[in-house]
Amino acid sequence: MPTYQYRCEKCGHLFEHAEHLAEHKSAHPSCPKCGSETSQHAPTPFIAKTSKKS
Questions:
Q1: What is the DSSP string of the chain?
Q2: Residue 27 to residue 48: CA distance in whole angstroms
Q3: What's the confidence (pLDDT) of residue 42?
Q4: Interatomic CA distance for residues 54 and 52, integer angstroms
Q5: Distance between CA 23 and CA 37 in Å, rounded?
Q6: Within 10 A of 30 (CB to CB), how many other CB atoms are there?
Q7: End-to-end CA distance of the chain
Q8: Residue 17 and residue 29 in contact, taking contact as beta carbons nearer than 8 Å
Q9: What pLDDT does 53 receive?
Q10: pLDDT tens digits for 1-54?
């Protein structure tokens, strides 16, 4: 199950939430810090690692 990052619009707290791919589009988890339900998905950068060296 993938973990996504969210940012609370009320207090600005950045938090992670694990959810299925099917529910990610409609998920709006509540902030663990202030309890607000106004969280937005925060895109995260990633680095792909491969076994081959270029």
A1: --EEEEEETTT--EEEEE--HHHHTT--PPPTTT--S-EEE---------SS--
A2: 26
A3: 87
A4: 6
A5: 16
A6: 15
A7: 30
A8: yes
A9: 67
A10: 788 899 999 999 999 998 888 887 787 899 999 999 999 888 877 777 788 765
